[in-house]
Amino acid sequence: MARPKSNDKRIALLNAATMAVGMAGIGASTATIARKAGVAEGTLFRYFANKDALLNALFLYLQQSLGEAMMVGFDPTQEPKSCTRHIWNQFIAWGLANPNAQQAIRQLAVSDKITPETLREVETLYPELHALAEHCIRREFLHNERRIFADAIFFRLAETAMEFAAKHPDEAQNWVNAGFEAMWRALSLDTL
Which keywords accompany this UniProt record (predicted)? Predict the structure, then answer.
């Protein structure tokens, strides 16, 4: 009879994968991930059918964590620019507090390992964020490849702000603000 799976062990594997992928990219070995989680490599495969399944679960896990962080204190009744600034600030704070998770999301987002099913599942997370985009992002950025382009602008500018904030903590808020204003001018309806 198979032993029951433990949610704590699954989370430990995902946290270990976050660290490993954040540091070494998607090429991080399952042996390294298992070792960081304090389990045998065979145990990893009791929880995830293969490495691709682990990477997809990790991407979803990190997107959920990021989304939860961005939603803390979110008030959709505020005007769109204030709402967007809140999301921006929460994203930057999460990334600075979780550099391995931020790097892992970045690695996974550009890999070919994330399945369309996982991407669809991520899309269903936090509909409030999609509604906010509908209210403040220029229409030409809301569909198809242009939406992906707009997301890339948002994330690259946020990553740049994080990088400068981490290097110059005494000026961190200035970099966060400058990044937000650049993103807002590039994407928002207010600039038309």
Answer: DNA-binding, Membrane, Transmembrane, Transmembrane helix
CA distance 48 to 67: 23
User: Can you tell me the distance from the alpha carbon of 160 to that of 74, in angstroms, rounded to the nearest whole number?
Assistant: 23
Where do we find the tokens 């928002």?
Answer: 188
Rounded-to-integer distance, Cα 11 and Cα 17, Å: 10
pLDDT for res 133: 72
Cα–Cα distance measured from residue 60 to residue 54, given in angstroms and rounded to the nearest whole number: 10
Provide the CB-side half-sphere exposure for 47 (13 A, CA).
25
Q: Do the domain assignments include residue 170?
A: yes
User: Does a structural domain hold residue 24?
Assistant: no
Name every residue whose Cβ is closer than 8 Å to that of residue 136 and which is 6 or more positions away in sequence. Answer: 80, 81, 83, 84, 188, 189, 190
Environment class of 165 (CB within 10 Å of its CB; exposed 0-12, middle 13-18, buried 19+): buried
Residue 55 has pLDDT above 50, yes or no: yes
Confidence (pTM): 0.88
CATH of the domain at 58: 1.10.357.10
Alpha carbon 154 to its chain's center: 12
CA dihedral 94, 100, 104, 106 (to 10 degrees): 60
Count the neighbouring beta carbons within 10 Å of the beta carbon of residue 6. 12
